[in-house]
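User: Before I run my own analysis I want an independent prediction to cross-check against. Here's the chain; please return only the C-alpha cells and, at the end, one sentence I can use as a sanity check.
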Amino acid sequence: MVSLPTPLQEISHELLEKRAIKLYVKRDDLIHPEIMGNKWRKLKHNLKAIRDQNLESIITMGGAYSNHIAATAAAAAEHHLKSVGIIRGNELNKESNQTLRAAHAKGMELCFVDRKTFREWRENPAMLKTKYSNHYFLPEGGTNELAIEGCTEILSEIDQEFDVVVAPIGTGGTFAGILKSALQEQKVIGVSSLKGNFIHEEVSTLLKNHSISNPNYEIMDAYHFGGYGKTNQKLIDFINWFKENFGISLDPIYTGKSFFAVWDMIKSHKFEKNLRIVLLHTGGLQGIEGFNRKNENIIQ
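Assistant: C-alpha cells:
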C-alpha cells in the first residue's frame, strides 16, 4: 500500500509566471491512504526498531485531532501490533470525533487524561515508560532520532533542482530531517502552526540535540491563524480555492497554513524572482472530516 517515491507536482498560475517563480508540491499525502505524509516517514524506522526489539505494542501521546495518533493506530494495526494512545483531555471519549473513532476502530486503546497529567507525562516520559514498561514509546508528534532519520529521505526523492523547500512545523521533526539533508545552498523554511515565538527556541534546541548545524533556515511564526487548530475564513477560503484550482486537498492544521504562507509571500514580493520552491505536503487529510463535522462542512 506504500507508494514511493511520491510525485513532485508543478503548480501553474499567472501569479507564478508574473513573478518568474517555479512552484512544486512534494505529494507525500500520497504515500499511504491512512499513514500519509510525514507520519509514515516518522514511523518507518521506529517500526523497524520495534521489530528488532521484539516488542508487540506501542504507546504514544496526542491531542483530540492528532494526525500522529491516527497514523500510529493505523500503522500498529497494519503491522499486527497493539497500541495505546494517551489523549489530552479527560472530557473526551472514543466517540468525540472522527480521529478518535478511527484510532479506536484500528484497535488503539485510548486513555484520556487531564491536561496537567498529560503535560507531566510529556515533559517526563520516564513516568509513562514506567507505567507501560513493555511498550515502545513514541513522543507526542512522533519526533525522535529515528523519525528525523526517516524525514531525511524526503529530499533524496526529488530529481528536480530547487532553491527553497517549505514545510509546516509542529514538533519540528520533519523540519529537522529536511534541514539535515538539504544542500548548503538550499534554504529550508518552516511555517509554525503554533502561536508564539517560543517555537524558535524549541527548534533550536531540537537541532542542537540532534547535531544538525545547517544554518540556512528560517522559521515563519506569523501564519498560525490564532494557534494550533485555529482557523479563520481567510484560511478556509484559501484551502478551498487551492483545491478547486490545483486539485490538491490541504488540511487546516498544517499544510493549509504553510501553503497559505508561501502564496502570501509570493503575492507580497517576499520571494525574489526566478526561485524554484518546493512545498512539502505532509498529509493530515484524515482530520478534515472531523473538522467539517464541527464546522458545518466548510472545507470542500
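Sanity check: Residues 37-52 form the longest helix (16 residues).
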